[in-house]
TrEMBL record:
Example GO biological process: DNA damage response
Protein name: SIMPL domain-containing protein
InterPro entries per record: 26kDa_periplasmic_antigen, SIMPL/DUF541
Length: 215
């Protein structure tokens, strides 16, 4: 865009640390045996036990997604003769109530042949934190433009162009793994400290300024 008069181009940035809004973790159920049908039955029963625990944890559990199901034969190294079967299914769980998170993860890990991994802390895609960071980045760009203009004895007069230049948000996570093969006894207490999320926004802006006062 052609413009008359001097132009100042600046980059505005904003970095904020905000509390997470979601926590995700993965629950993997495993079964193995010599007979395929028996192994599949055992896998289904253990997966059903996990579902019962998750059903009893609502409304803390906001979402769950089953996936990564596999069953494969186990063979001897010397040939293709099948000597057993191994199966696994993983469920990804999203939790919004962090006060119940540690207890839920340990209760799941206390089940037979269950592995729990996570949590991964996140913000909601429509979190107000994203909007606030973008507004702050624009404010930073305008402040910088005014400071440059003032150093020249001028003032900002109009916005020519504004572009989002990133970078995007950087999710933070913490990973812990629990693998308990039927622990028996009481479930211990576990406190998890939610990790702050770093939200970033950056813009490129061009402004016209009044004629500088030089000399």
């Amino acid at each position: 865009m052609a413009t008359d008069g001097p132009v100042v181009q600046v980059r505005g940035e904003a970095i904020r640390e905000v509390p997470p809004e979601l926590a995700r973790f993965a629950v993997t159920v495993t079964a193995r045996g010599r007979d395929r049908e028996a192994t599949l039955t055992q896998l289904a029963e253990r997966a059903a036990a996990v579902r019962v625990l998750l059903d009893g944890s609502e409304p803390a559990v906001a979402r769950r997604e089953a996936g990564d199901l596999w069953v494969r034969p186990q063979t001897k190294r010397s040939g293709e003769r099948v000597v057993g079967w191994l199966g696994s299914v993983t469920t990804t769980v999203t939790v919004t109530d962090f006060t119940a998170l540690g207890e839920l993860m340990l209760r799941l890990a206390d089940q037979d042949q269950v592995e729990v991994a996570g949590p991964w802390w996140e913000l909601r895609p429509d979190s107000p934190a994203h909007r606030e960071a973008r507004h702050a980045a624009i404010g930073d760009a305008l402040l910088r433009a005014r400071e440059y203009a003032e150093a020249l004895g001028a003032r900002v007069t109009a916005l020519i162009e504004l572009a989002d230049s990133g970078p995007g948000d950087r999710p933070m996570f913490a990973r812990a793994a629990f693998d308990v093969g039927g622990a028996g006894g009481g479930v211990p207490e576990l406190e998890l400290d939610p990790q702050p999320q770093t939200v970033q926004a950056a813009v490129q802006a061009r402004f016209t300024i009044s004629d500088p006062v030089l000399g």
